[in-house]
Fold this sequence. Notes:
The chain contains 7 helices and 7 strands; from the N terminus they run E-H-E-H-E-H-E-H-E-H-E-H-H-E. The chain is α/β, with parallel strands linked by helices and 246 residues long. Belongs to the short-chain dehydrogenases/reductases (SDR) family.
Amino acid sequence: MGKLDNKVAIITGASQGMGASHAKLFIKEGAKVVITDVKEDKGTELAKELGDNAMFVKQDVTSEDDWKNVIDQTVKKFGKLDILVNNAGITFAKPISDLTVDDYMKIVKVNQVSVFLGMKYASAEMKKNGHGSIVNISSIAGLVGTPNSIGYTDSKYAVRGMTKAAALEFAPYGIRVNSVHPGAIDTPMVHQDNIGSAVDEFISAIPLKRIGNPEEVSKMVLFVASDDSSYSTGSEFVVDGGSTAQ
């Protein structure tokens, strides 16, 4: 038996990187998975690869209408919603002096507002079932400060706080809300041209002396999403090779 047998999950930003890894493991563990992303070609291809228990829905996670559509399509296809993984996120490295308001708000909308919208609409559906697990992907940048990343850092701190507030609000309905905090993980995000040197410097300081892989984060997300973590809510789960232990 799989850890997610008979569960239905939505995973945002799941056409590649960590999101795709989460989707693959969830399917392997028995879940039905709705993959969402703005990258339609990659998302459609991944859903096809994963088979009948996967579906792709194009989504701008900052759009309230898109969130309503994703929830509607999920319930129409699979009948219910048990798990939400708010995985979508963006970053770029700039000092505060060079960061425009547009840059800043773009990061906040994708990393923070999308999590609010996801929790708002997913929880409404989960309340009908009397249970649910929401996993918000934050970062170790939501635990410690990071230079030249103010938009990313404060949005990930916000996800951490939002998780705790929602956990208390949703607990009476049997809905758990937790955050996962990856460190440096080998995904397309860390290979962006504008942050490469900062990532290399960060990796050299990791106690385990290596970058993490997406599958290592996915195993933590699986634990948090599943009933194995049934007494955890409002908690922080760190996957960082010891970076925040220093």
